[in-house]
Amino acid sequence: MAANPKQANEKVTSFLLDDKEVNSFGDESILQVAKRNNIEIPHLCYKEGYRPDGNCRACVVEIEGERVLAPSCCRKPTEGMKVNSSNERARLSQKMVLELLLSDMPQQGKSPYKLDSELDYWSAKLSLYNPRFEERNQLKADVSHPAIAVNLDACIQCTRCVRACREEQVNDVIGYAFRGKNSKIVFDTDELMGESTCVACGECVQACPTGALMPAKNVGLVEPDKKIDSVCPYCGVGCLLSFNIKNNHIQYVEGRDGPANKSRLCVKGRYGFDYVHHPDRLKKPMIRRENSIKTPEVVKPEDMHKFFREATWDEALEFSAQGFNKLKKEKGSQSLAGFGCAKGSNEEAYLVQKLVRTGFNNNNVDHCTRLCHASSVAALLETIGSGAVSNQVSDGSYADVIIVIGSRPHENHPVAATFLKNASERGSKLIFIEPYQSDIALHASHFLQLRPGTDVLLLNAMMHVIINEKIHNEKFINEHTKGFENISKVVKDYSPEKVSPICGIDAELIKEVARLYATSDSSIIFWGMGISQHIHGTDNARCLISLALMTGQIGRESTGLHPLRGQNNVQGASDVGLIPMVYPDYQPVTDKSVRDKFEKLWGQSLDPNNGKTVVEIMHAIHNEEINGLYIMGENPAMSDPNLNHAREALSKLEHMVVQDIFFTETCGYADVILPASAFPEKNGTFTNTDRRVQLGRQALNPPGEAKQDLWIIQEIAKRMGLNWNYENTKDVFNEIRLATPSMAGITWERLENVDSLTYPLTNVGDPGEPIIFKDGVFPTDDGKGRFVAAEYTKPAELPNNDFPFVFMTGRQLEHWHTGTMTRHSRVLDAIEPGPCVLINPEDLKLLSLKSGDMLIIESRRGKISATTRADEGMQRGVVMMPFSFNEAAANLITNEALDPVGKIPEFKYCAVTLKAGQRPGDIIDKKQIKNKKSDISYLYGS
C-alpha cells in the first residue's frame, strides 16, 4: 500500500515535485508522493499495493541532471531532487506511450469492455483521441470461463494481471509469453481460461485497467445506481467488499482495502452473490397442510406446495408462537430448543439465544460451531481462558515459522491462504501438516502427510523432542504456566521413532519440524477442522496449545494460536452466547453471579443448567424429551452427522419453525416456514476469525414478502409474551455491548466510520487488542496457562475387511457447507456442478475404475453415489467428499460419535466400503482387500 506519512520512525526525504516542495516517507516512490499530494501523473502498469513494474512508461518524469526519463512508479526520491512530471519533455513521452497503447484498442477507440478504463481516462486527460498509428491484428475473445471473459484485443500488456495472479494471490496461472508482436498474456501453457487451473478469484479482473479481463456477461458495462460498502458472508476471513447495485440487483462485486483482505477476494466473494436473485427464493410464509404427514424422506423444492400452503405473516407468526407456547405449557420448558445461524449477524444470534433463554426458558440453544470448532474452543477455554484467536492472520503471516495443520486454507479460507503463500515467498518456513496433499503443500518448506486420526501421536512426539533436547522455554514455563511436569511425563512415551510407523511421518522430519518451531524467534499455529472434527478433537487442540506454551510462542507479534473460524460469523455468534453452556462473552450459565447479572439485564429468571448441544438435541428428540424446535438459518438435515438419524429426528417433532431464504432440506420437516432476508438485504455486525467486528450494510430489499430476520425473531418473541421493542439493529447492538464486556467500547457510530474494530475493546476510543496474552498473562483464575496432557486414542470407527476405506468430509473452494447459497449461484455451480469423491489413482485401479466413473460409498449408516476424481494428493485407503450436494449428501454416511468434551461429531473419520456405481453386486474382491491391508493396518490395532 502507499506509505503512511503518519507512521513513526520513517525516513523523511524532501524534494521538489513540479516546483512544489514535498516530502516522501519511508520507501515511497515519486508516484506515490505525487498521488498523496494530488499531483496527477499518468500511469497504467502501476496499481497501489502491487510491486511496481515500470513497464508501461506512461508515468515517466524528468529528473534534473539525468539524461533519461525515469518511471515515477519505481524511482525513489533523494534529498534535494528536482522532479518535473508535466514539462514538455515528460508530457511528450507520456502522450506517445498513451497514443501507442490507444492505437492497439479495438477500433482504436475507447475500451468496449470497461466503463472506467484507465487508458481512456488518461487519454482524455491528455487530449488524445485519434491515434496516428496502424491498428494491430486483434485476438479473438475467450469466453470459455463462466466467471471471467478474456478480451486480449484490449490488452496493453501492463502485466498487472500477472502480478495479481502470481504475487498477490500466488496462484501462478497467468503468465507473459512469446516475443515481440507475438507477445501476449497466457493462462498456464497458453490454455483457454476455462480449461486452465484458474481458481476464478477475479484479482486479475480487478487489476485490469482496460477490461481485457472482465466479468462475464458484460456486467462491467453497466453503470451502477449505487455502491454499498459491506463485508463478505462466506468464510471467517471477513473480507471487505463493495456491492455495485443497479435496479435492486447486484451487478458486480469489488474487493475493498480491508484489514483482513487488502482488496483481495476469492471466487465466492467476487462471483457468489447471484444466489440472492435466484427465482427459488422464499417469498411468502408457508404453513404445513393439515393432511401432510412428516416422514424422514426429504421433500424436494419442486414439491413444496404439495406439503405447504401460503399464509399471511400474521397467521404464520401466530401459528409459530402458539405451537411453542402450547408445548411449553403441556410438556414443560425443556421440551423446546433453538438453532441459530453462523451466517447471520451478531444481533440476530444475540436475539435467538435471548429468545430461547427468556421465551423458551432453557439453554437448549446452539449453532454450527458445535460442528466445527467446539472442541478447539473447549480446549482454549480450559487452558488459556479464552476461546478466540491470539493473533490475527495478517500478523501471523510475518512469522518465521508458520504451522498449518488440519486445514486446507486455499480452499477453506482462500484470501488468508494468499497471505500465508506470500509469507512463504518472503522466506518464512511454512510447515503444512495434513492427510491430504492439497495445493498449499507446493508452497510449504515442509509437508507432513500424516495418517488420518494420528494428530495426537505426531504432536506429542514434537513435544517429546522439544523437552528431550531442552529447547523449551523454561523461563516462560516457570513464570506463566502450570502443569508442565505432568505433560513431560506423558510425552516421554511418544518418541518420534515410536510414533513414526503409526502416523506415517519420518522420525527425522518430526525432529526437524519440532526444532524449527521451538527455536525460531516467532512461530504461529493455524488449524482447522481437521484438528477439531474428531472424537479426540479437544485433545488435538490441547496438544497445539501445549506446544505454544512450552516454547513461549504466544503473546507476542507473529506468534500464538489461531483456529481458523469457518463461517463468516461463527466467532461472533459464539461471542454473543449462541451456545448452550455460556451467556454472551463466554460467561457460564451455571455461575450464579453471572446468572444474576443476566436476570437483571433481561428482567426474568433464567435456567441454571447447561443446555443441550446440536447432536444431543437430535438424540433428545428421538427420546421424546424435545418436541419443538426453532431454526433460524441452519440446515441440520444436511449438516448433521448420520443424516438418516437426524432426518428421522426432525420428522418426529410436533412443532418446528424454520426461517430461511430457500426451501432447504430442513424446511421439508417444518410446520411453519418463514421467508427471511439474505446477507446483502440487511444491516448488522459480523465478527471474523481475527476478532474483528465489522459492519455489513444493506444493499438490497428482500424479495416478495420476505422480511428482515431481526423483525421475525422479535415478532415471535412478542407473541410468546416477551416485551421486546428494538427499533433497529443499532438498538440490539447496544444491548450486546452491555452483555459483552469485551465489546463494550465498540460503538455503532465508530463502526460506521472505520468499518472494522478488534476486540477486546472495553473503553470507547481505545484501539482494540489485535494481540492478546501479552507478557504471558492469561485470563484464567491465576493468570497462568495450563498444560493439559493428551493420550492417543483411536477413532471411534476403524476400517475392517467389510469397510476397508477411511472416509473424510471437507470443503470445496466453489461451494459452502450445505450449498444453500452457492448451489443457487450460477457461476459457482457452473464451475463445480455436481458431487465428486477424491480418491488416489491406485485405489481407482484397485476398483477397476477410472476418473469420472460413478462410485458407491457405503458406511454402516448409509450410502451415496458420486463421480470419482483421481487425486494423487489423497493417501491410499482414504477418500474425501464435500458435503454441499443434496444429491450425494456426504453426511448420510458420517459417524455421530462425539468428542466427550467439545461434543463435536467425528466428521473426519469413518469406515466405508467402495464399489462401482450402477453395479450393486460388484463388491471389492476380498483378496485385493487383504493385499492392501498393510497400508491401513495401523488403524486396526493388534
Describe the protein in words.
This protein has 942 residues and is of the alpha/beta class. It folds into five domains: 12-86, Ubiquitin-like (UB roll) (Roll), CATH 3.10.20; 133-277, Alpha-Beta Plaits, CATH 3.30.70.20; 286-372 and 569-687 and 705-741, 3-Layer(aba) Sandwich (Rossmann fold), CATH 3.40.50; 377-563, Dimethylsulfoxide Reductase, domain 2, CATH 3.40.228; 805-939, Barwin-like endoglucanases (Beta Barrel), CATH 2.40.40. Helices cover 30% and strands 17% of the residues. It is built from 31 helices and 39 strands. Strands 14-13-27-26-25-15-16 form a seven-stranded mixed β-sheet. Strands 32-36-33-35-34-39 form a six-stranded mixed β-barrel. Strand 3 and strand 4 (70-71) form a beta hairpin. Mean pLDDT is 93; it is low at 1-8 and 919-942.
| CATH overall fold name of the largest domain | Rossmann fold
Mean pLDDT: 93
In total, the number of domains comes to 5
Query: Helical content, roughly?
Result: 25-40%
Radius of gyration: 29 Å
Number of strands: 39
Query: What is the overall shape?
Result: globular
Number of helices: 31
Which range does the strand content fall in? 15-25%
| Spatial order of the strands forming the largest sheet | 14-13-27-26-25-15-16
Question: Which architecture of the largest domain per CATH?
Answer: 3-Layer(aba) Sandwich
Structural class: alpha/beta
Main β sheet profile: 7 strands, mixed
Unreliable sequence segments: 1-8, 919-942
Record keyword descriptors for this entry.
alpha/beta; disordered C terminus; about 30% helix; Alpha-Beta Plaits; single chain; Ubiquitin-like (UB roll); about 950 residues; disordered N terminus; 5 domains; 39 strands; six-stranded mixed beta barrel; Rossmann fold
